[in-house]
């Protein structure tokens, strides 16, 4: 059974499948360019990127809630997360900020802290590129460089995966902010992006699951997979 974040992600991706069905119905499957249908491809690129961002934020929140629920005390928190919290408290202008985590109030602090991080991201208008996803998971739950898990098969190295994600997110920005991209967007590119994002979600989910299991002794979900990657309810 996958995480709640992955369940929501898979449900959202059905929108992309529907767009591709409409493209097929209107344009067929034979070779050649389809005129008047590129809007479906552009819409798919924008939606896939939005769903990827939502998945990462939902997964970070779910992991934090899991850590709060299953950590017996503050000492049991992951070292990397404690370092992030200590740094924040030291830099806080409020001299009494340290008391926000005293007397067993650390759980409330962690939960409210995640909300503040999400609000800060929204104000900064960050995009779900590789650096920002790394920052999200490091700040939220203490996972350093979650993108280090983004490798599969022979050719998809971590660096290639990061570059590919950033390229597609940049394309999304071009479409969303200018109304059109600098180049045409094909159905094949949409399918490539969709397959790629599913793999990223699986690898990211697997990394987060291993991390919280190591920190709390309890995984977010049970998996029979040898590599721990998160699988969807339906086949990818």
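Sequence proposed for the structure above (236 residues):
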């Amino acid at each position: 059974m996958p995480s709640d974040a992955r369940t929501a992600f898979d449900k959202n991706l059905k929108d992309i499948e529907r767009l591709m069905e409409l493209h097929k119905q209107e344009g067929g499957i034979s070779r050649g360019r389809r005129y008047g249908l590129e809007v479906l491809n552009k819409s798919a690129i924008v939606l896939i990127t939005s769903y990827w961002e939502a998945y990462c934020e939902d997964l970070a929140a779910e992991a934090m809630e899991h850590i709060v629920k299953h950590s017996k005390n503050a000492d049991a928190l992951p070292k990397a997360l404690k370092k992030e919290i200590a740094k924040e408290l030291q830099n806080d202008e409020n001299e009494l900020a340290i008391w926000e985590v005293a007397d067993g109030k650390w759980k409330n602090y962690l939960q409210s802290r995640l909300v503040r991080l999400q609000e800060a991201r929204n104000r900064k208008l960050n995009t779900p590129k590789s650096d920002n996803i790394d920052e999200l998971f490091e700040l939220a739950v203490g996972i350093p460089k979650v993108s280090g898990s983004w490798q599969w098969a022979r050719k998809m190295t971590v660096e290639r995966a990061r570059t590919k994600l950033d390229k597609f997110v940049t394309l999304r920005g071009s479409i969303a902010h200018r109304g059109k991209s600098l180049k045409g967007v094909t159905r094949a590119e949409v399918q490539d992006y969709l397959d790629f994002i599913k793999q990223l979600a699986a690898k990211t989910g697997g990394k987060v699951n291993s991390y919280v299991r190591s920190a709390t002794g309890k995984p977010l979900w049970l998996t029979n997979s040898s590599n721990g990657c998160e699988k969807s309810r339906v086949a990818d």
